[in-house]
Specification:
By secondary structure, this protein is of the alpha/beta class. The chain has helices at residues 53-61, 81-91, 107-114, 136-147, 166-181, 197-203, 216-224, 254-262, 268-283, 294-301; strands at 40-46, 69-74, 96-101, 122-125, 151-158, 193-196, 229-238. It has one domain (28-244): Spore Coat Polysaccharide Biosynthesis Protein SpsA, Chain A, CATH 3.90.550.
């Protein structure tokens, strides 16, 4: 049984609290088969996540609408993460689980390795330390089914409180409202993005050559939005880990965030590839900063 410390925000065994979503799926779209209209490949890059990835995989395998396939990429882990993934693969002979290893460090290298293995209409980019409610993939597929060809992405809200508590409900309602109001911006992280596979490929996907910095989830969303809308819904949520306390090396400043929100979509290329690129390059805000795991040092010192 994989259980995280109660205060670290990592996924716990068992499904997060949830009520039934109000997005219905057409009967013929409910299958998890790779040829189904809204079949999903779950992609998870991971690095030294042995304490969390087992619970995350089980939360995704236990979906009301299971994924058609998993693509798991070990980004040169030195712990038992890959063994846990291999055991997960062996336990599910009826599910397509592809386990890869990418020696070049960095989440983007891992995702570049994963992309050619997607054979379904949708890709769900997930994080190894995030908890997903049982209706997660079904709710996302429902959004695609309802909104039609104009929808390029279904974006999950990151909820830190119990999703059925007053605070959790507020987070979900606020996130959905902001997503609708500022529809040409990104309001979630790489833990909660479900995109059309053809659009991901057309835009170049997650790639070092395009954007080698942190906030790659926001930058890829900018490219995806050129091909269609991204939708947020109060019932499409997950619970990302909050264990990274000091985020100064992995996120933007308040000023940069304000400029992002104030910049019209027509000028977002300037924002990312001129303004933010120069600032991130100067501060050395490489995507590889995410490999630092200060909580591991704390765990090692714990009695």
């Amino acid at each position: 049984m994989t259980t995280a410390r109660p205060d670290d925000g990592a996924p716990h065994e068992g499904a997060p609290h949830a009520h039934a979503p109000d997005i219905s799926m057409p009967h013929d779209a409910a299958s998890g088969a790779a040829h189904a209209p809204w079949a999903v490949t779950v992609m998870i890059p991971f690095y030294n996540e042995e304490a969390y990835i087992g619970a995350t995989l089980r939360s995704l395998a236990g979906q009301t609408r299971p994924p058609a396939a998993f693509v798991l990429v070990d980004n040169a882990s030195t712990d038992r993460s890959a063994e846990i993934c291999e055991a997960f693969r062996r336990e599910r002979p009826g599910t397509e689980v592809t386990l890869l290893r990418e020696e070049k460090p960095g989440k983007l290298n891992a995702l570049e390795t994963a992309l050619p293995h997607a054979k379904t209409p949708l890709i769900a980019f997930c994080d190894a330390d995030t908890a997903y409610p049982p209706h997660y993939l079904e709710t996302a597929a429902g959004l695609f089914a309802q909104r039609g060809d104009g929808l390029a992405g279904a974006m999950a809200l990151g909820v830190t409180a119990d999703p059925e508590s007053p605070k959790g409900r507020f987070q979900r309602l606020k996130g959905a409202a902001v997503g609708a109001l500022l529809a040409k911006q990104c309001h979630t992280g790489g833990y909660g993005q479900i995109f059309r596979t053809e659009i991901v490929r057309k835009t170049g996907g997650y790639a070092n050559a395009i954007w080698p910095f942190v906030l790659s989830d926001h930058e890829i969303t900018h490219r995806v939005l050129k091909h269609g809308a991204c939708a947020y819904h109060r019932d499409l949520w997950c619970r990302p880990s909050t264990r990274r306390g000091d985020r100064r090396r992995v996120t933007w400043t308040l000023f940069e965030r304000l400029v992002y929100h104030a910049t019209p979509f027509a000028l977002k290329d300037w924002f990312f590839y001129d303004f933010l690129w120069r600032r991130f390059e100067r501060r050395q805000m490489s995507i590889n900063n995410l490999r630092a795991q200060p909580w591991a040092e704390t765990d090692a010192k714990a009695p």
